[in-house]
Design a protein that fits this description.
This protein has 191 residues and is mostly helical. The protein has three domains: 51 residues; 85 residues, no CATH class; 29 residues. The chain contains eight helices and no strands. Helix 4 packs across helix 5. The termini are far apart.
Amino acid sequence: MTVKGKRARITSDGRAHIVTRALEHPRIQRTELARKLQNELEAMGHDMPQLEVLERMISEFRNTPSNPLDKPWSVITLAEHDIPPEALPKVLEIFIDKLKSEGVHLTIREARWIARLSFVLKDTEMLYGYALEYAGVEKAGQLLGVDVFQLTDDIGLYGDMTGEWLNIDDINLVKLHWQREARKISKGGKR
């Protein structure tokens, strides 16, 4: 918690949380989202930035120059942003469902993640949820200039894919393996 009059120190984890929430909830007013973020950050043990600071950060992340992957998806976009032909029926199914039920248009980035994950997840709502999560993490990583590898929950994806949930020892073993791989790569080594 921040001492009154002191400026909050926003860690890279805190920044990643802020950008992820800003991108996940584009329709929530920034002041309302900033208030929610204050509570979330405090609950996570982070310093609590002032409301105005969070509002500026939310605006900054939401208003960054558009990436072509964040433009609306349609079948014609396949000319420049290809997906596996076998995945097209699932992408179209979710595209039409979200358009009809929520008035939401998929982005190219989201359609690509749906296509990638459609081979491992059969449940449409779960597939859509994971695709949004991975698309958001990918975009957040680009905005923050961090390795998205640190922001993903592949273990949860594996559990939902197989129904086999890893115990904490398995999870720690996987994390240790990938931390070692990341150190090798950061030192110029190859995987």
